[in-house]
Amino acid sequence: MINSLNDSLIRIKNGYKLNLDSVSIVKSKKIIRVLDILYLEGYIRGYSFDPLDVYKIKVLLKYSGCGKGSLREIKVISISSKRAYASVDTLFNLNLKKSLGCFILSTSKGILSINDALKYNIGGELLCYVV
């Protein structure tokens, strides 16, 4: 799951760098949950399932009126060879220190944003940080 998630996040990041309208990524349940979080946080316009290829998702990228992308950077934290975990206390400190952006983590309740994880009072594996 980590490799396909990393690949998907890098495709989205590169799509913003190239000013593309949309990018295609591989479909999975966990990636759909990450896309839901990105949509709710305002980093993408949405996503749709590709009717020609049932294994692909079309992610619609979001830009401001002057052409700047709403997503500046995606930093992948956990990789397959080095996982990063955070307790509730660590998440609370990360939430206080961040100025902008959103941490996305995998918890026992599923894939959540840092605010939702703090609401449920659970920690988990840090997947990525989006600015």
Explain this structure.
- It is a single chain.
- This protein folds into two domains: 60 residues, Ribosomal Protein S8, Chain: A, domain 1; 57 residues, Dna Ligase, domain 1.
- The chain has 131 residues and is of the alpha+beta class.
- The strands form two sheets. Strands 4, 5, 6, 7 and 8 form a five-stranded antiparallel beta sheet that branches. It has a three-stranded antiparallel beta sheet with strand order 1-3-2, covered by helices on one side.
- It starts with a helix and ends with a strand.
- The chain is built from four helices and eight strands, in the order αβαββββαββαβ.
What is the compact description of this entry?
This protein has 131 residues and is an alpha+beta fold. The protein folds into 2 domains: 60 residues, Ribosomal Protein S8, Chain: A, domain 1 (2-Layer Sandwich), CATH 3.30.1370.30; 57 residues, Dna Ligase, domain 1 (2-Layer Sandwich), CATH 3.30.1490. Helix content is 34%, strand content 30%.
Topology:
Elements: H1 2-17, E1 22-26, H2 29-40, E2 44-49, E3 56-61, E4 74-76, E5 85-86, H3 88-97, E6 102-107, E7 110-113, H4 114-120, E8 124-130
Antiparallel strand pairs: 1-3, 2-3, 4-8, 5-8, 6-7, 6-8
Helix pairs in contact: 3-4
Measured between the Cα atoms of the first and last residue, the distance is: 22 Å
User: From the alpha-carbon coordinates, what is the Rg to the nearest angstrom?
Assistant: 15 Å
Using the coordinates above, name the CATH class of the largest domain: Alpha Beta
* Percentage of residues assigned to helices: 25-40%
Low-pLDDT runs of 5+ residues are none
- Per CATH, which architecture of the largest domain? 2-Layer Sandwich
Largest sheet: 5 strands, antiparallel
Mean pLDDT: 89
- Quantity of strands, as a count: 8
Q: Structural class from helices and strands? A: alpha+beta
Quote the CATH topology of the largest domain.
Ribosomal Protein S8, Chain: A, domain 1
SSE topology string: HEHEEEEHEEHE
Measured by DSSP, the beta-strand proportion falls in: 25-35%
Number of domains: 2
Query: How many helical stretches?
Result: 4
The coarse silhouette is globular
